């Protein structure tokens, strides 16, 4: 997906309309909405949608890419002001919040992060960087990998996506996880 040829002007317009419609529909109805509904909202046929985005996860990744880029950039800036453990903790809390922006998105998070959009790549690289920094500082166990983090973020996102209580529940669950991976 990252090494695609430039699109013809009409194809680019269709792609942009699909992404705009997807954003609207996912916010309104969640990530599990029918892709036919996205195509109709975009004013394109379902074949056009699938030609650009062969799977739901491809569409989710493309629709979320700019958000993930901004998330990663903010994390990188903020991490300079935090110790490695708190930088990782803050990354995890915010990734859960991002995963809960579209109801039902959390179930696809692990797949979406592997799609290869610029935002997905940046988010994975930032999480890996923060984890390695914490491990190199000796505050996180060396046997933890980024895939473990994605699993935990997915689980916490699924547990909290319908939760109308405060962010305190997310913070509490992240804290439990952090205590489990912390050294000493």
Automatic annotation (TrEMBL):
DNA-binding region: 34-53
Pfam family, one: TetR_N
Keywords tagged on the record: DNA-binding, Transcription, Transcription regulation
A molecular function GO annotation: DNA-binding transcription factor activity
HTH tetR-type domain location: 12-71
InterPro entries associated with the record: Homeodomain-like_sf (IPR009057), HTH-type_TetR-like_transc_reg (IPR050109), HTH_TetR (IPR001647), Tet_transcr_reg_TetR-rel_C_sf (IPR036271), TetR_SbtR-like_C (IPR049445)
Top-level lineage group: Bacteria
PROSITE patterns according to UniProt: HTH_TETR_2 (PS50977)
Organism: Thalassospira profundimaris
Name of this protein: TetR family transcriptional regulator
Ranges that cross the membrane: none
